[in-house]
Amino acid sequence: MISQKLNDQITRIGPDTPAGAVHRMYWQPAALVDELTGGEPRLPVNLLGERLVLLRRGDGYILATRRSSPDEPPAHHPARDDICVVEGGPVYPVVEKKGVFFAYLGTGEPPAFPNFDCFRAPDSHVFAFKGLWECNWLQALEIGIDPSHASFLHRFLEDEDPAESYGKQFRDKAAHTDMPMTQLLREYPRPDLEVEETDYGLKITALRHMAHDLTHVRVTNQIFPSAICIPMSREMIITQWHVPVDDETCYWFTMFTSFRQPVNKELMRAQRLKEHRLPDYAPLKNRTNAYHFDPDEQETQTYTGMGPDINVHDQWAVEGLGAIQDRTREHLGRGDAAIVRYRLMLRRAIKALETGQPEKLPMQDRSLTPQIVGPLSNDAIGDTGNWLAASRQMDTERRAGCPWDATV
Question: Which CATH architecture best describes the domain 27-109?
Answer without folding.
Answer: 3-layer Sandwich (2.102)
